[in-house]
Amino acid sequence: MNTPVAAQTSFSNLQAGSLTGKVVVVFGGTSGIGLAAAVQAKAAGAKVIVIGNDRTRAQQAAQAHGFEWRTADVTQSDAVHEALKEIPKVDHLVLLAGTFVAAKVLDGDVDYMRRAFEERVWASVHAIRALNGRMSSDGSITFISGVLADRPNAQGTAVLAAASAAMEALARGLALELAPIRVNTLSPGHVETPLLHKVLGDARDTVLPAMRASTPLKRLGTAEEAGAATVFLMANGWMNGTTLHIDGGVSLI
Hints:
Blueprint: H1 3-19, E1 23-27, H2 32-43, E2 47-52, H3 55-65, E3 68-71, H4 77-84, E4 90-95, H5 110-130, E5 135-144, H6 158-177, E6 182-188, E7 191-192, H7 194-200, H8 204-213, E8 221-222, H9 223-235, E9 243-246
Parallel strand pairs: 1-2, 1-4, 2-3, 4-5, 5-6, 6-9, 7-8
C-alpha cells in the first residue's frame, strides 16, 4: 500500500538532488515554458542562465528569479557563440526558443518560412557546436517540438510542423552521435503562454475557449506543467532519445 508513495518520494528526491549545483542554460528562458522550466530548475538547486532575444526581458527575468542572463538572436551563429563563450561548463542545455511561423507554402515568403528551421534546427546546431567540449558527459540537451509534428493542419503551419518533426529526429540522431550526453525532445500541446496570446492577437477571446473545448481535459496546459516536464527530462538520467508528449491527450483525437 505504501509503495506508490515511497516511489513518488524517491522520484522527488532524485529530481531535486540530480540538479543540485548543476549549470542549466535555457534558450528561450525569459517567458512561457522556458521561464517556468528555469524557475523550477533553480528551485531544484541548479545554477540557471537564461538566454533570450530581448535584453530588457532577459534582465528582468534574471533579476526577478536570481538567474544569470545573456541575449542572442538564435539564428545567428556568432551571437550564439558570444552568449555561451564565457560559460566554462554546462550540465543541461535547454533549447526552447522559437516563434510561431505560419505561412502557406504556395504564397508565403520563403525567407520568413525558413525561420522555422533557423530558430529550431540550426539554432540547436549553433549552440551545440559552441559548447563543444564544455558539455558534461552525464548532462543533457532538451529540444522542443510540438503537437504539429504529429497533427499538422491546413492553416499555414506545414513548414512549422516539418521543423517540429525535424527536432524529434535530430534528438534521436544526436542521442547516438553525442552519447553519453542525453538528448530528448519536449512536445507540448496547447499551452497558455504569452506567445500563444501574441499569435492569436485580438481573436484570442474567441479562439481560446474553442481550443479549451476541443481538448479531452477541456482546458489548456500551463507553462508550469510543461516546465516541470522539461525539468524531468533534465533530471531523469534514463530518459534518452525520446519525445515526451505533454498535450493533455490532444494527440489522441
